[in-house]
Amino acid sequence: MNTALDTHATPLFSYRKYWAHRFGVAPELPMSRAEMDALGWDSCDVILVTGDAYIDHPSFGMALIGRLLEAQGFRVGIISQPDWTHVAEFQQLGRPNMFFGVTGGNMDSMVNRYTSDKKIRSNDAYTPEGVAGKRPDRAVTVYSHRCKEAFQGVPVIIGGIEASLRRIAHYDYWSDTVRKSVLLDAKADLLVYGNAERQIVEIAHRLAAGETIAQLHGIRGTVHCIKQLPEDFWVKDSTDIDKPGVLMPVVDPYQEAPACAPQASASTLPDGVQTVQFMPRLGKNVARENTVIRLPAYEDVKADPILYAHASRVLHGETNPGNARALIQQHAARLVWINPPPIPLTTKEMDGVFALPYSRVPHHAYGEANVPAFEMIQHSVNIMRGCFGGCTFCSITEHEGRIIQSRSEDSIIKEIEAIRDTSPHFTGHISDLGGPTANMYRLACKDEKIEAACRKPSCVYPGICPNLNTDHTPLIKLYRRARALPGIKKIVIASGLRYDLAVESPEYVKELVTHHVGGYLKIAPEHTEHGPLSKMMKPGMGSYDRFKEMFDKYSKEAGKEQYLIPYFIAAHPGTTDEDMLHLAVWLKRNGFRADQVQAFLPSPMSIATAMYHSGQDTLHKLNRKEDTVYIPKSVKQRRLHKAFLRYHDPKNWPLLRDALKIMGRADLIGNGKQHLVPSFQPKGVNDDAFKSKGQQVFKTKYTFAERREKPSASPRSKRK
């Protein structure tokens, strides 16, 4: 079995085109047999199944991958938001010649369907007219099963953010347990994670050349199952955080048992007995590409939150394509093999991907129906991808990577001109020039060798790395050129701004504030207190204060009345009631009244989710003796934290008054400007569900040394 990893990426557009390229470019990728007939196709080479409405725009993953495969010469069909209760929906385009590609859509299906309080959302922005309920829970798994039923023997490849963030055993907030790798739950043949251009193009060409899906090992950015460990790899054991225990017996070279038989795991041994497996080295200097790290088994991380936290720490240390090693994780009798992340796209390749012949509108089958997500992005331009911020609650780094991949200025300008010249509803306003972070365009490490060797989770925490280039000049130049285009009246920057980077370039802040703020600028300090900020890996309020000073100064110089709108997170790991109280006082003092508030949602695979599940600060050495981070986990406490953010809402006043009395801060109850909540309650506005219950629910003193109960038959131990 050839599992050796490529260390040099094949240029994305250097492959010889598949023979079907003679059919030419489709006006839009077909969603019906009638459309296939009109194109002269007797079959599709690849069929993409998605939980989103099909919008032929590069901001939608299925369109980008579909158009890229089309550019490689393949015939690609789309099955959008199928009725998952009927297998016939997955047969409507016939049997694909090569594979089904399955994605839950631009959002994780569980995040899309449920709020952070686990309530079903009333709408879906990726569905015509915003109608909810058009996709199932765990859409990737459900769609994959239906594809398998529709056509036996056709490979199923899963991808997109839902598959990407579930590539290993992961904590699932909605079921409050650790689930298997989605590769196994979906019964798929291959999982593609991260931005999938390199992987999917290589996969398609190799399948077209006659290889089987079982032969597609060693492709960066993919996950698959293996029967046995390859002989040319050295295994670095990382299945435990403690000192070695009982050694496994030497393996008999003449054993009759298959080599892929599962190793004994901690969960199958007597209480207190642990094992460590030593593997032979292949020499003194084993190359990183020939090293694989063994993570704790699925059964072990499911039973032990500390081992889950340990596996998370190991995984997040292997996210840099320049030095990441492969990972393996035992799931019963199967080994899940996670290849290192893909090599980032070059600027030329990024330009090529965004220059594909997208129609930039929803598929004609939707008629005049409004798709809210399209309405939001139809006049916006994605200028880069990736983020090196490393915020622990965010999954961008795990999906897109921390290395910034930027388009050229010419490519971005051409797209703006295309919007101006072809969009039927364009009025001269570009709604965004951005990406995951608005002002990381072309920012990178000053030295490629340092970048390839770096293992830090963030380039800007606890401070900006001295090796990071923070020059905003290319972005300033892009803004000036874009707004000078004929027919362009206004360009607003709507993507999240990293203000601790922005203050390094006063010229950029002046350019932004003078020309690209539409009255309000949204930024995300996330909190004011050191405790939660240190668990988020976010800068302190000093950076915010410096940015606000610049913002106010340049707004005044421009003669504009403009405002900052800060966003905050409630109930994040490390946040106490006192932290939220201090944040509420800061909001009151600064005159902010949040209309919408965000409570922490433990998304799969994020660092903060590992904290939430384990009670451990996974940014530091783990500790089995005590919890190292406070977790506001109960529904009632999460509601209190959200109430502090909306201190001005009369519906929250009874809850806040009770909590303030218990916290010894009754001095903040009153009718003066210095008070947080008034002592009176408006007639007809009350919240009996919370009134007088604070004494039973909320604490004012916390201990991070609450001992866990011994593991039981339940999915995870419960904290008292």
Which terms would index this structure?
720 residues, single chain, Rossmann fold, three-stranded parallel sheet, alpha/beta, 23 strands, 24 helices
Written overview of the protein:
This protein is an alpha/beta fold and 720 residues long. Among the domains are: 1-220, Cobalamin-binding domain (Rossmann fold, 3-Layer(aba) Sandwich); 222-245 and 263-341, no CATH class; 613-720, no CATH class. It has 24 helices and 23 strands.
In short:
The protein is of the alpha/beta class. 29% of the residues lie in helices and 12% in strands.
Which SSEs are present, and which pair or pack?
Elements: H1 33-39, E1 46-50, H2 61-71, E2 76-80, E3 99-103, H3 109-113, H4 139-150, E4 156-159, H5 160-164, E5 170-172, E6 177-179, H6 182-185, E7 190-192, H7 197-208, E8 222-226, E9 234-237, E10 246-247, E11 275-276, E12 291-294, H8 298-303, H9 305-316, E13 326-331, E14 334-338, H10 347-354, H11 372-377, E15 380-382, E16 384-385, H12 396-400, E17 405-406, H13 409-422, E18 429-430, E19 432-434, H14 448-453, H15 473-483, E20 490-491, H16 499-502, H17 506-515, E21 520-526, H18 530-536, H19 541-557, E22 563-570, H20 577-589, E23 598-599, H21 607-614, H22 635-645, H23 653-662, H24 694-697
Helix pairs in contact: 9-21, 15-17, 17-19, 20-22
